[in-house]
């Protein structure tokens, strides 16, 4: 299938109005992969107009929920039909191992559409128990309107899908704005939406950088922004949204603690934390990053996880032997290297990694899996989101320390507890401030489980029925029965 390099506006593939384009790179080699149109302000205006026209068009506005459900199901089928192409494209554009693209990213995208296809016919209002005599009151759930869906570069297809599927299930129209580093699979997804028969203008797609994102978030014709990305940009979006008080949902950064209790199965904790920390080269918002290990087990844990990390096969995502691929960009490599330097300067012990590999991999954006021990709560590597393959190991003496230390962060996206004791597990699950707490497992995602964070990790929840709340307005209707 040919991937259009242009913008999708009102059902037509168009170049940018001013002809601007930008390159996307293969992170495994640092060489250009393709060129795509770069949306400017007039393209943003055109896409918002197209989305508004489609929103007001009865073909979409009054489409029966069962018909919308069939369209979403058709998108899921098409994602599966093109699963291999989508996975390869994601690996080439983003760098993730092909096993992650095929086993996680693409199937999750298809499942999002299936799950929300089911919701289309279950978005219901209710009759309210009002006390004013001679009246009745009922509620309707109505779409919010034109939604800008702005996504990051770490799991491009799955994140686009987990916003797009509920937005469409509720009857909204959208403008997708993928990250400039990884536009290709989102463009592919937009094309599949057209192929599935979703009416022109319901799904628009603008490739471009922060300027296109900013123009969307400031646009008075946009009713809602659903954003996944950095906390810093999330704050800019809130400020921009104040112009017309558009609805905003935010999935932002994280710094997930992972607690290894005295009674934990250390081998399971090592294997789970290694994957939880290094999945997608650590470029996962829920990645386990700071490890609080019982002081009697910390040496054993450090030794085992460092040995496992240093033995991980690094390589291009398309190579079947690769367990860890490159980072997404040179900028990301520099960010990780900066934090490694800070870790050393602030007195942590570098146990393994800490540098770019040389040899065959020197041309790509690779970074070795890196483990620090002797980390303290005040160090930058324990506090700030690195978004790369860096594990910071801390220790604790008394379990009473755990919740306060885990909660001593602006973030609150995910956390993990490794223990065999139910009391420890439930007590920590209740006291750690995070949108998702995992017990003895990896940070899985499922369309049926709400996803989002406390504090600086964002506003609102995606996935599950809560995404339906995020993409609808509640209208009350009063009837005078007297
Ligand atoms: P980013 O915030 O730099 O960019 C995200 C998107 O926002 C891109 O499409 C970008 O073009 C756009 N953008 C940039 N400036 C903008 C502006 N002023 N107005 C509107 N849009 C703008 O984030 P990133 O570097 O692409 O992604 C990494 C971040 O995403 C990390 O902080 C990570 O934790 C977070 N993330 C969170 C989740 C989650 O579910 N909570 C999931 C994945 C990634």
TrEMBL record:
Location of the active site:
251
Molecular function (GO) terms for this protein are: oxidoreductase activity, acting on the aldehyde or oxo group of donors, NAD or NADP as acceptor
Query: In what residue span(s) does the Aldehyde dehydrogenase domain sit?
Result: 13-476
> Would you indicate the residue range of the signal peptide?
none
Recorded hits in InterPro entries, A to Z, give: Ald_DH/histidinol_DH, Ald_DH_C, Ald_DH_CS_CYS, Ald_DH_CS_GLU, Ald_DH_N, Aldehyde_DH_dom
Give a yes or no for keyword Oxidoreductase in this entry: yes
Could you list this entry's UniProt keywords, alphabetically sorted: Oxidoreductase
Q: Among its keywords, does the record have Disulfide bond?
A: no
UniProt record similarity statement: Belongs to the aldehyde dehydrogenase family.
Its name, as the record gives it, is Aldehyde dehydrogenase family protein
